[in-house]
# Entry
Amino acid sequence: MLTIDRLTKRRGSALILSDVTFQARPGRVTGFLGPNGAGKSSTLRILLGLDRPTSGTALVDGVPFERLPDPLRTVGAVLDGSGAHRARTGRAHLSWVAAAAGIPRRRVDEVLDEVDLTGAARKRVGSYSLGMGRRLGLAAALLGDPAALVLDEPVNGLDPEGIRWMRRFLRERAEAGHTVLLSSHLMGELAEVVDDVVIINGGRVVEQGTLAEVTGAHRTLEDAFFALTTGARGGAR
Amino acid sequence: MSAYSGELRKLTSLPSVWAAFAVGIAVPAVVGVLSAVSTSAAIANGTKPEAGPDLGYQELAFGVAGAIILGVVAASSEYFTEGESAGSGRQITTSLTAVPSRTRFLLAKVAALTTAVVLMSAIATGITLSCVQAVVGDHAHALDGAAATRVPGVVLYWVLTALLAFGITLLTRNGVVPLAVLVLNTSVVTVTFLLSKVTPLAVYFPDLAGMRMFLTEVRVPVELSPITGGVVMAVWVVLLLACGFTAFTRRDA
Amino acid sequence: MTAVAPTRARGSEFTRSSHAEVLKLLSLPATLLTAAGSLLVSAVLAVAFATAGRQGSTGTASALDIGLAPIGYTQAGFIILGVLAATSEYTGGQVQTSLTVVPRRVLLHLSKVVALVLIAVPTALVVVLGGLVVANLVLGDAAVVPPFGDFAVGVGGAAAYLALTAVLSSSVATVIRRTVPAVAGLLVYYFIAGPLLRDRTAFAAYLPDTAGYGMWFHSGAGRFGSLSALVGTGFVVAWVVLAVAVAAVSFRARDA
# Structure
C-alpha cells in the first residue's frame, strides 16, 4: 500500500505540490491524472526517494522508500525513457540491475520474454525505438516481481498494440493482488484500466475516489477531468 | 545573419563557455604575475639583467586552453545526451531543422565561435600584459613596437586553435578525445615539442608553427618567421575544417 | 509467470551494489577504449623516452625512471576513466534506475568508488608494466636495471597514483555531472595549471598532482617543495578522501 500524506514541495518561490494526500491500495489500479506540469511526476519522484519534499510523507507500507530492505522486490518503478545508458545492451542493463538487487540471473531472461524484448536484448539501448525503451524500463521494474508497480506516463510513446498490451498487463497485475499506481494525462486510454482516480491540478488534489465517483454525472472520465481542471486554470489556454 | 546570432546566443547560454573564459583569462594572468614576480626578484638580486622578451606571452600560449575548450564545446554541445531521459533528444535535430542548409549552419557556428574567441583573447592579452608590465616596470624587455604585431599574433593563434578544436570535434563527434589530445599538447612539455627533438619536421605542426606568431624564444631546430608560422597553422585549420564540414554534411545527424 | 523465491537477497547490500557497479563499468564500451588508449599511449611514449635515453638526452639511464616517465601523460586516461565512471549515470536517466534499486545514496556512492578501484588498479598495473617492458626492450643493453625492491615500489606507487587519480576525478565529476566540463577542468588542472604552479609556488607541493609526483617519478621526489614519496602519498590520499566525502554529500543532498 502506497500512502501519500500532505506532501508539499517548494522549489525557490514556486509551489510545486501542496498538501497532496491519497492512497494506492493493493488489488486496484490507481490512476493519478492531471495536465502537464500538475505535479504528477514530482509526487512519484518523491515517493521513490529521487527528490525530497519540503514537508509531508510518501510511504511504502508505512516505510519511506530509502529504508526498504529490498526496494526492487517491493516497488518496481517505470519512469520516463528507458532508464538505461544508450551504449549498453538491453541484457547488460538488466544484468546489473539484477545483480544490485540480488536477483538470480534467470529472471533477466524471464522478464525479457514477458515484455517481448528477447530479440533485441543483445542490441545497444541507443538503437531502441521509444516503445522498446519503455518496455526495457518495465522489464527492469519486473525483475523482483514487486508487490507494487509505480508508472509515470506508461503509455507515452507506445503504439496502439502496445497500449492495449499495457492495459491488459496492468489489469492482470491488479487482479493478482498487486498495487498499481500510474500517472497520466491521457484520459481516454486509461479510463478502461483504472479502479481509483486521483485528479491533480496545479499541485493540488482536486478530486479523488473510485472511477464511478469521480466520473459522477459526466458522460466520461474525460469530461469530468476537463470540468474539474479547466475551471481551476481559468479556462483552456 | 539570424543563424549567426542564433549560434552566438546558443554559445553564451552554455555554462562551459563561461568556464572556458575563466580559464583563458585567469590562467595567463595569474601565472604571468607569478612569473613576473620571480623575474623581478631575480633582477633585484642581479641574477638577471632584464625580463625576457616572452614574459607574459609564454603564459598566453598556455591560456589557449580556454580557446580549445570553447572550440570543443561549440561542436560537442549539439551531441549532448546527458540529462536526457527521453529518446535520443539531442540538440542537433532541433538545430538542423531550424537551419536546413548544413554548411550555412556550420559557417554560422564558426563565425560565432570566432567572435567569442577574439573577445576572450583580447581580454586575456590586455589583462596579462598590463599586469606583467605593472610588476616588472622599468625592467621590461625593450619592445620597440613589436607589441603591435605580437598581440594580433596571440589573438590569431587562439582563434586558429579554437577552429582546429572545432574541426576535430566535428570529426570525432565526441568532445573527450579532442580535449585530451589538445590539452595534453598545450601542457608544459608538449607532445609536438618532444617530437621536434626526434625530427625537425615537427616544427610544421600547427601549435609549434603558430606560436612563432608571438613567441621569440622557441627552442626548435628550424625557426619559422611569424608570417610563415601563421600561414602553416592556417593551412592546417582550413584542411581540418574542410574535413569536419564534409563529414558533418555527409553523415546522418 | 514464475514468482521469485521469497528468500532474502544474497550478500550484503554493499557487496551487491559494488558487484553491480563493476558490471556497469565492464559493460560500457568507453571503459575498455579508455584503458586500451592508455596502454597505447604508455607504450608509444615509452618508445620515445627510451630512444631519447639511448641517445643520452634524458637525465637518467635508469630503466625504471624511463619506463615510468609516460605516466605523466597516461594519467589523462585515468582521469577520463574516472569521469566516465561517474557521468555515465546521467545518460538516459540511468541514475533514476540506480536509485530505485539502491536508494541509500552514500552506500551507492561508496560502492561506486570500490568498483572503480577494482577496475582501475589492474588496469594501472597493466599500463605501468606495459610501459616498463617496452622501455626495457628499446633501451636494450643501455638499461640500468634497478633492484627488485625498487622495482616493486616503483610499480606499486605508480599504479596506486593512477588509481587514486581516477577516484579523485570520478568524485569531481559526480559533482559536475557533465562529461565535457569535468574532463576539461581536470585536464587543464593536471596538465597546465598544476605544472605551472609547481614551478612557481611553494604551496603547489601539497596539491594532488605535485604531491603524487614522487609516487611515480622517483628521481623527482623531494625536488618540488621537499615532499618525500611517502608524505606525498599521504597528501594524495587525503585529497581523495576529501573529494569522495564532498561528492557523497553532494550526491545525497541534491535531487536525482
Notes: Chain B touches chain C at residues 15-16, 19-20, 23, 27, 31, 34-35, 38, 59, 62, 65, 69, 72-73, 76-77, 80-85, 175-176, 179-180, 183-184, 186-189, 191, 194, 197-198 (CB under 8 Å).
